[in-house]
Amino acid sequence: MSGVLDTLKKNRTRTITIAAIILLFLMAIQSMDTKDWVITVMRGLSVGMLVFLVASGLSLIFGLMDVLNLAHGEFFMLGAYVGWTVFVRPDTFIDVLPLVLLLSAGLVLIPLWRSLIARANVSPTAGRFWPWIVLVLAIGVLYLTLTRYQIAIWDPEDFASSPITFSLALSQGNLVLPQLPETTLNPLALLLGVFIGTSLLAVAISGFRLRGQARTESTHVDRGPIITALVLIGIGLLVELGNDGITMFLLGMSTTWRFFLAIGVAVLLGFVLGGLTEATMVRPLYNRPIYQLMLTLGLSFIIIEVVRAIWGRPEFTMPKAALFDGSGDLCPATNLGDLLANQCSTLILFDGRIRTYNEIFIIVVGLIVLVSVWLIIQRTRIGMIIRAGVQDSEMVEALGINVRRIFTLVFAMGVGLASLGGVLAAPSVGLSTDMGTRFLLLALIALAIGGLTSYPGAAAGAILVGLLQQFIIKFGQIGINLPFLSEPFKPTPPLVPASVILLMVIILLLLPNGLFGRSD
Amino acid sequence: METSISAANSDQNGIIAWIKHNWGLLLLVIGVLLLPFIVAFFDGQSFSDVLASETGSAKFIQGLMIEIFILAIYAISYDLVLGITGLLSFGHAMFFATGAYFTGIAFKNLDWGIGATLLGIVILGVLQALLFGLVLPRVQGITFALVTLGFASVFFIIVQSSELAEWTGADVGLQGVIVPEFLNTTNERFRLYAIALLATFIIYLIYRRFVDSPTGRVCIANRENEDRALMLGYNTFHFKLVALIIASITAAFAGFLHTVHQPIVSPNIAGLGWTVAALLIILIGGVGTLSGAIIGAAVFRLLEFFLDRWFGEAASFLLGVIYIGIVLFIPFGIVGTWKAKAAQRQQGWARLLQLFGLKKEEITSE
User: For the residues A184-195, what does the mean pLDDT come to?
Assistant: First the structure.
């Protein structure tokens, strides 16, 4: 007992702050009806979980590598848009998939080309200019093939075939996909051209890499990349051959399964993109902290522009999957049995109407992720290395562990989590090109509140941010009875973001390391 | 930082020695001052047209250059905070926006003169730096960045809130500011141009002097190793506060020029994007170089301008690509890389001279 008291005394400010937050929370609940506060808490948790999915990756990346990834919000956004594509337009997804697979198959082979070129032992003078020639060739081949490759896609400029229209059509159950015009060009031949183009690109890149180096490169040919490339090519060609069949299958499956497929694809893409970003762009900059800010900032501009170019500027929403969109006689459900049997879109809890997807599914998934990542960090070997790396990555390296590989893994994992958050957010908050920036800011605030490098801190901060926002919104509707005021005070909309920021500033002034951060 | 230390030491005859050491800089300033006339000459306008602010490419170039000067003043103040003192602040846009909004309100609602407005700006600049100074001893590093971001975001929200629409124009921005005739950008553009140029020049000189002063040296020491500076007996808090106050006044002055030059003060200049712009500018130019902020501002604005003109929609995308390229391939910014490559450049010159037979010395190889 005395031990507990001692810890409390040592962390007096922290204890008082946490107690004050809990007290305020209870007071806020006290002033509302049961119905109101249950809904508000559920909404707050839902937003908090989305923020947590962004914040957790940000916190892991910052803790391990000291990189504040300002493009994290944009990866979140990209996850949402890719998820939408798989969900609403599976035909586009299937059309693009072989292309992406073959492009990456070509680039996976870079190590192979490198050893082959190193073996060929080209003279330095020739080595100075041949990569440029190959590069021009590669761009030429890629241009010729990529522009002729046909993809069934929407057109953000034209309302009748814009993403908004397709979303609406799907939610009303009359989705009609546009047919591609017939062409004489064989898509398989085009894919082959794409592969040759990327291979040339890979050769050029390896040529550039080898240019400045002495001939100490190992000429050993690894088998890994070749196998990966063959698998990628195989899958790519199979998908292309079965294009129509797979599209029909995806369209025929229930929207529930398609939604889970969308989640899977978005997470996988986020994982790969994260790994690639770390390996190619962030890695050269580990000893120049501010430059990483600028790099990730540049990356976020690029992603926003790409999303604007492909999906257009207007906002749209993703329809909910069938599992969360039912409306039978027994809906809104009053008990769990009715909810599961009718797949109701809403249920009644303490007289309040709660949306199944927004307030239950997101929270459940968020909690599962929270717990499983926590278990990975606490219970596995990789988690142990991550924790050690957060403490002192040089020491871990000195112990003979390849920390760089862990860096890549953690970056990939963080971006994957953000991507997951994006898909989950798409049906509830909608898709817009500023959603990334918005959630990144919230996640940064959550991290600052919880402690920058602390994983439980990220969770607590995110939930606090979500709850506070929702409570302020709710109070905006019903008003708070403040002392010395005759009329109930109604917070105006600008106070919603401002309140979170003020909470952050106050907590940081009281506890510069956040609620759960370690003091260095 | 540059030659001014030796200039101060080497000669008693102050001004002449100073001019001798800085003739390149002075020539550059005079050249830029004459730029509108040169443009007018090639465009077939007479010189009196330039003075009378006649519409034409000379007037347009002046407008663009004034924007560059404003950006340069703003960025150099951020360089003092980040590059010299080593404080990562994400709230710098607030310094600028306070100046811009206050100028607009003073001219429009309060009907103040230029002198009173400038005095008000200085007072406000000191006040907001003191606000940052309140949190300065408590939080460090990235936490300081987040707290300042918090301050600036609250300011941004306040400026945009509809309750203050009468004063700040809410999210439309401050419109219809009547600028006193003396500084009017449509009728007296060349005067404004000259004033902005001179202001940039003088602020650059003051900053360079500040960095060379004992105070500035301690600021640099704080950037390099704060613990060591503390150990040596410097209360780094005071030095950080001084740097913040100077930067805040400078940025607010840039905001003043912005309002004078632009007809609308948009709330965007209070947002995070505007701080990021300053960060990008000094990263392009070279962090902690001062002159880099000015060159970076020119590159940044021209890049934005030409990309927008040539590519329209895709400009933002290309800007992102160029930033990443700069970070990966010109890591120390333009001025930083230029200085780092000084030895190589000298060698190159020597080799060139030898090639033409002008110099017979043996060149030491790498």
Answer: 80
- Cβ(A449)–Cβ(A503) under 8 Å? yes
Cβ atoms of B108 and B177 closer than 8 Å:
yes
**8 Å CB contact between A89 and A154:** yes
Closest CA to B292 of B103, B87, B83, B6: B83
Residue A288: list chain B partners with CB under 8 A: 331
For residue A27, with 0-12 CB atoms within 10 Å meaning exposed, 13-18 middle and 19 or more buried, which class applies?
exposed
Q: How far apart are CA B80 and CA B98, in angstroms?
A: 19
In B, minimum Cα distance to A282 occurs at B328
Question: How high is the pLDDT of residue B7?
Answer: 46
Set of chain B residues whose Cβ sits within 8 Å of the Cβ of A508: 135, 138-139, 143, 146-147, 150
Look at B150 and A494 and tell me if their CB atoms are within 8 Å.
no
Peptide bond into A332 cis (omega under 30): yes
Is the CB of B160 less than 8 angstroms away from the CB of A494?
yes
- Comparing CA positions, the residue from A502, A435, A451, A496 lying closest to residue A51 is A435
The torsion angles phi and psi of A506, rounded to 5 degrees, stand at -65, -45
- For residue A459, give how far its alpha carbon lies from the nearest alpha carbon of chain B (Å): 18
Cβ-based burial of B207 (10 A; exposed 0-12, middle 13-18, buried ≥19): buried
Contact yes or no for A299 and B324 at CB 8 A: yes
Nearest to B79 by CA among B272, B295, B320, B302: B295
Q: List the one residue out of A111, A311, A70, A138 whose CA is nearest residue A217.
A: A111
pLDDT, tens only, A69-112: 889 999 999 999 999 999 888 888 888 888 888 888 888 888 88
> What is the DSSP code (8-state) at residue A89?
-
- Measure in Å the smallest separation between the Cα of A501 and chain B Cα atoms: 5
What percent helix, strand, coil does chain A show, rounded to 5?
75, 5, 25
Distance of CA A389 to the CA centre of its chain: 23
Residue B292: which of B348, B238, B333 has the closest Cα? B333
Mutate to test the interface with A, among B84, B135, B143 (most CBs of A within 10 A): B143
What is the dihedral sign for C-alpha B150, B155, B160, B164?
positive
What pLDDT does B79 receive?
93
Q: What is the pLDDT of residues B74-132, one digit of tens each?
A: 999 999 999 899 888 888 999 999 999 999 888 888 888 888 889 999 999 999 999 88
User: What residue in A sits closest to B324 (Cα-Cα)?
Assistant: A295
Question: Do residue A508 and residue B153 have CB atoms under 8 angstroms apart?
Answer: no
Residue A213 φ/ψ region, left for φ over 0, alpha for ψ in the -120 to 50 degree band, beta for the rest: beta
In chain A, the residue whose alpha carbon lies closest to the alpha carbon of B139 is A512
Residues 6+ apart with CB under 8 A from A234: none
Q: What amino acid occupies position A483? A: P
Residue among B143, B154, B272 minimizing CB distance to A508: B143
Degrees (nearest 5) of the Cα angle A112, A117, A121?
150
Q: Does this complex have an ipTM over 0.85?
A: no
Residue type, B362: E
Q: Which residue of B has its CA nearest to A451?
A: B143
Q: Which two tokens stand for residue A384?
A: 């142990």
pLDDT in tens, A306-315: 898 888 888 8
| Phi then psi dihedrals of residue A449, to 5 deg | -65, -45
CB hemisphere CA count around B53 (13 angstroms)? 13
Residue A196 token pair: 């040759």
For chain B, the farthest-separated pair of C-alpha atoms sits apart, in whole angstroms, at 76
More confident residue, B47 or A502: A502
On the CB side of A233, CA atoms within 13 Å amount to 20
pTM (two decimals): 0.84
DSSP state for residue B80 in the 8-state scheme: I
- Of A77-86, A251-260, A264-273, A331-340, the range with the lowest mean pLDDT is A331-340
